[in-house]
Write a sequence for this structure.
């Protein structure tokens, strides 16, 4: 029996930023997590911030 874990174990939940592709062993709490079509995707804090800024800049201030 192999004592080491096989690569690509199903339990290995590595977080990958869907935008810039940076990886983390475990998704930090600052990362934004979303479920898209049953697949989990993450946004790192930097991309999350950029994403929010992009969303806010596209909103019409008159709507608020
Ligand atoms: Zn990112």
């Amino acid at each position: 029996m192999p004592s080491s874990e096989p690569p690509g174990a199903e339990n290995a939940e590595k977080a990958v930023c869907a935008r810039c592709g940076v990886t983390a062993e475990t998704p930090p709490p600052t990362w934004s997590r979303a479920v898209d079509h049953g697949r989990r995707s993450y946004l790192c804090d930097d991309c999350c911030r950029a994403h929010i800024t992009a969303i806010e800049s596209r909103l019409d201030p008159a709507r608020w």
